[in-house]
Write a structure and sequence with these properties.
Elements: H1 2-24, H2 37-48, H3 59-86, H4 90-106, E1 111-112, H5 113-136, H6 148-168, H7 172-191, H8 195-215, H9 220-241, H10 243-257, H11 264-281, H12 291-300, H13 306-311, H14 319-347, H15 356-370, H16 379-392, E2 395-396
Parallel strand pairs: 1-2
Helix pairs in contact: 1-2, 2-4, 3-4, 3-14, 4-16, 5-6, 5-7, 6-7, 6-8, 6-15, 8-9, 8-15, 11-14, 14-15, 14-16, 15-16
Length: about 400
């Protein structure tokens, strides 16, 4: 009987963790892969509600995570209210609803460091594989099965995380695999030709390499040589991979200087300007999907260019402005609170004190991408972001003992 009970527990754990594994791996290899995540989460909830998972929750981990979970729940609930009141993106709302349920389900559990590391390496392999396939197939901009911009966000996130794994590990095999994946993922990021992600990841990378060299015991001449080698290699790789994009950017800047705002950058400038006008009309609660009719009124009054109205933006290419337009100051406050409390949960993780750095890298990447896109509008990047914070807030270097006073009894 004990053997059967143990087997049932292992099967239940595997099913409960399946959505997290899927989000980092198969979701990127299957067309419309993100659509299957809510179904997997429902399956995990069915199997996880039997009490087996609840008995394995660590009280301290759950205590650290609870403010983050409550903020995420409030953000999702407010999104539901906005959806039924003023309309909103059902795709985004479904993703937030599903991942909120899943975050509560796996909250309080711990994840072994080497398991998370293995998952990230496999994820890097999956992202590299689909990128290589599309590059070989002649895609102008690789995009996975979604869109170049959120795909670039995922690539950049994984590049930085695996770079951190590679630097920290002492295992030669992991260093070689990690270094190879970092190179492949960085090149893949360049091949998305997503300027709003490429520039930040290069800047973050430069800061990381500089810090590592300054704090290392290598002699000054060696530090300078390594820094120049890495910098020159990155520069040549970037110039070669996105030469056409650079030329296109320069051409767009010339058009903007001549007053033509119908280019990609010009339209973004118009969206940001229009969003500020829209926010001033309904600063607290936002417009919801009614932002389209509000934009039409601005165009009729001559306050926005006709090229923007014809473009008919579904979002405003800035995560924070987009939240302000559609969900008002309340929605933006809940978003910022959720991100901040997610970082706090990771920082308070006493089982792995160094978990805060990868969490900061993830948030920096998403914030940088948010300045010119909406990564928390796309299901793929929503799932990756929330699951990453939950796992990092509960990552542990070893198996945690579970004395009775540290267990959260099943409700």
């Amino acid at each position: 009987m004990p053997t059967h009970v143990n087997l049932l527990s292992q099967i239940t754990n595997a099913i409960v963790l399946l959505p997290a594994v899927y989000v980092f791996t198969l979701m990127w290899l299957i067309p419309d892969g993100e659509k299957y995540v809510p179904g997997l989460i429902l399956l995990a909830c069915i199997f996880g509600c039997g009490g087996v998972i609840a008995k394995k929750k660590q009280y301290q981990v759950l205590t650290n995570q609870r403010p983050f979970l409550l903020a995420l729940t409030s953000l999702t609930a407010y999104g539901l209210l906005t959806y039924f009141w003023k309309g909103e993106s059902w795709t985004t709302l479904r993703a937030f609803t599903a991942i909120t349920l899943y975050a509560w389900l796996i909250s309080g559990q711990t994840f072994k460091t080497h398991h998370v590391r293995l998952l990230l390496l496999i994820s890097g392999g999956c992202l590299s594989a689909i990128s290589a396939y599309q590059a070989a197939s002649g895609y102008d901009r690789i995009s996975g099965f979604i869109n170049p911009i959120p795909f670039a966000t995922a690539l950049a996130t994984m590049t930085l995380l695996i770079a951190l794994i590679t630097v920290r590990t002492s295992h030669l095999a992991i260093k070689l695999i990690g270094a190879t994946l970092v190179l492949l993922l960085f090149i893949s990021t360049l091949l998305t030709q997503t300027r709003g992600v490429i520039v930040p990841i290069i800047l973050i990378g430069i800061a990381g390499v500089t810090f590592k060299l300054l704090t290392s015991k290598i002699k000054l001449a060696g530090k300078v040589s390594i820094g120049l080698l890495i910098g020159l290699s990155a520069f040549l790789t970037t110039i070669t991979a996105i030469e056409d994009r650079i030329d296109h950017t320069l051409l767009e800047m010339q058009r903007i200087q001549s007053g033509d705002l119908s280019s990609s950058i010009g339209l973004r400038i118009q969206m940001w300007s229009a969003s500020i006008k829209l926010v001033s009309d309904k600063p607290l609660l936002g417009h919801g999907e009614l932002h389209e009719s509000a934009l039409a009124k601005l165009e009729a009054k001559g306050k926005v260019d006709e090229s923007l109205f014809q473009y008919s933006p579904s979002h405003y290419h800035n995560q924070f402005l987009d939240f302000l337009v559609k969900q008002g100051a309340i929605g933006l406050a809940l978003l910022l609170l959720t991100i901040s409390l997610g970082l706090r949960a990771v920082y308070l993780n006493s089982f792995e004190p160094k978990a805060w750095l990868p969490a900061v890298l993830i948030v920096l990447t998403y914030v940088a991408a948010s300045l010119s896109d909406v990564p928390l509008r796309h299901p793929n990047t929503i799932y990756m972001f929330i699951v990453s914070l939950i796992m990092l807030s509960a990552i542990s270097q070893s198996e945690i003992p579970s004395p009775k006073n540290n267990l959260l009894k099943a409700q």
